[in-house]
């Protein structure tokens, strides 16, 4: 059933994202043309095209957030919720489908934006610069060894779990806001800010309780070798990943419990 929910979510959201992706590539090509021509008569059209290109990228980022909120709220917490929750599907499957699709569009938005920038700016100089960068990167990896690939893997996992944790935090805030009979939006915003304050308090308590140990550890790293510094970076990324996972799991089960026990569709 999760597969069917994913298919439905992708179909519903692709109507928003795919045209924006296509428009972004079109304006990347238009800007590429203006850069190739480099005529003083085309300065104004070139400035307009570049401005539109930037606005589309900003719009894609904003729409990712808007669609995340709109799909969860409309599909589960409005009149559509009656239909959604009559389906033979567990509550967590509804949450999973929306989280996975949000992650998919977030990653695709970044990739399409990077590709469009590359298409717009690619020339002989940028290709040589990219090749030089890749050669230096591979040389660094050869010196660091397998730890370099571990760092990349941890960085990717941090991005993935960061997106999922942020998404489920929004879902939790929307669900809390839905409990209010009159001021759903304000309650949801307050809940989102409240979650952030709680996390800051917890992090502050942890850091303050181990402040001397952390300071001593990083002071030792200043004189440590390259391998020890790489291992420290791995440890920091691992701690951040663990934090994202813990926060995300806690908010996930909180959201699932609220939807299952406290849902208010009136």
UniProtKB/TrEMBL annotation:
<feature type="transmembrane region" description="Helical">
    <location>
        <begin position="185"/>
        <end position="207"/>
    </location>
</feature>
<protein>
    <recommendedName>
        <fullName>ABC-2 family transporter protein</fullName>
    </recommendedName>
</protein>
<feature type="transmembrane region" description="Helical">
    <location>
        <begin position="100"/>
        <end position="120"/>
    </location>
</feature>
<feature type="transmembrane region" description="Helical">
    <location>
        <begin position="21"/>
        <end position="41"/>
    </location>
</feature>
<feature type="transmembrane region" description="Helical">
    <location>
        <begin position="227"/>
        <end position="254"/>
    </location>
</feature>
<feature type="transmembrane region" description="Helical">
    <location>
        <begin position="140"/>
        <end position="164"/>
    </location>
</feature>
<keyword id="KW-1133">Transmembrane helix</keyword>
<feature type="transmembrane region" description="Helical">
    <location>
        <begin position="47"/>
        <end position="69"/>
    </location>
</feature>
<keyword id="KW-0472">Membrane</keyword>
<keyword id="KW-0812">Transmembrane</keyword>
